[in-house]
Amino acid sequence: MEREIIKYPNIHGVSFTDKGIPEVFPPHWHNDAEFLLVMKKGCKYRIDGAVFEGDVGDVILVWPRELHEVLHNPKNGVVFIQFSSYLMESNSDFAAASHFLHECHIIKRADNSELTEKITELFCKIRDIHDKKCYFTETRCKLLVYEILLLIGEFILKEHCNSLRDERFSDRAWDYVRFACSYISEHSAENITQAEVAEKTGLSPYYFSKLFNEYTKMSFPSYLAKIRIQNVINLLANTTRSVTNCALESGFQSTTTFNKLFMEYTGTSPREYRKLLKKNM
């Protein structure tokens, strides 16, 4: 198993590839998302231990930090986009829905032709503008990525709610969790508590904890730590601040706790992570 650092040579945070894609690739993971559009029959991927075989027009989804492997790619068999997890994790809608999104790894054209056709059109638009040198190319590509994420997110949540038909997954419950995720993200550098977020959300601590766990499949401390680690990663990549300052600015009050959580989250120390980033620039 290897960790990969994705390079973004043309546009910061978004990459489109349709050439030189390997026919096989060993198990690996990265902090970025990877969406593949199947162009030829016979594509086979293993994602988190499950094997997915794509037919022409299918969309295969690899979410951030998922272990995946290319078992077989016919020549010119796929095109794919890769994009920084920050696009999702800095957005409270996608942060709240992340658990449900991670349950979906393939959208079959045979079952969802209208959806896959729309995603295909957006892939083509990204391809057309990705390598062009024009004003706001990065913004245009990221807007298209968000369009793809929005289509997929609406599809997944609709399917999930239809299957459960549970009041815990009502529009009102969704608003509570989305507000909480937004509040946590905005105040993650502060010494916030679960009781404080519950109060701001308008729920009792007990009900908030239950609802938050149902949606995110994470406890409040774990979710807060994840947001803080993501902010540290962003600072390590885009500033020259020391590792300690990056941790303190992101809300960590103990370097021991920070180093332990960073290792659990990324599989390496923050200093090694920064070295890998520089090496792959």
Describe the protein's topology.
Elements: E1 2-3, E2 14-17, E3 25-29, E4 33-38, E5 43-47, E6 50-54, E7 59-62, E8 68-72, E9 78-83, H1 86-89, H2 92-101, E10 106-107, H3 113-130, H4 137-164, H5 171-187, H6 194-201, H7 205-216, H8 220-238, H9 243-249, H10 255-266, H11 270-279
Parallel strand pairs: 1-3
Antiparallel strand pairs: 2-9, 3-8, 4-7, 4-9, 5-6, 5-8, 7-10
Helix pairs in contact: 2-4, 2-5, 3-4, 5-6, 5-7, 8-9
If you had to describe this structure to a student in words, what would you say it looks like?
With 281 residues, this protein is an alpha+beta fold. It has helices spanning 86-89, 92-101, 113-130, 137-164, 171-187, 194-201, 205-216, 220-238, 243-249, 255-266, 270-279, and strands spanning 2-3, 14-17, 25-29, 33-38, 43-47, 50-54, 59-62, 68-72, 78-83, 106-107. It is built from eleven helices and ten strands. The strands form two sheets. A five-stranded mixed sheet has the order 1-3-8-5-6, with no helix packed on it. The protein has a five-stranded antiparallel sheet with strand order 2-9-4-7-10, covered by helices on one side. 31% of the residues are buried.
As a percent range, the share of strand residues is 15-25%
Instruction: Report the radius of gyration as a whole number of Å.
Output: 19 Å
Q: Work out the number of β strands.
A: 10
Strand order of the largest sheet: 1-3-8-5-6
| Structural class by secondary-structure content | alpha+beta
**Count of helix runs:** 11
Gross morphology is globular
Low-confidence stretches: none
| Secondary-structure element series | EEEEEEEEEHHEHHHHHHHHH
Helix content: 40-55%
Q: Sheet with the most strands?
A: 5 strands, mixed
| Cα end-to-end separation | 22 Å
Average pLDDT level: 89
User: Assembly state here?
Assistant: single chain
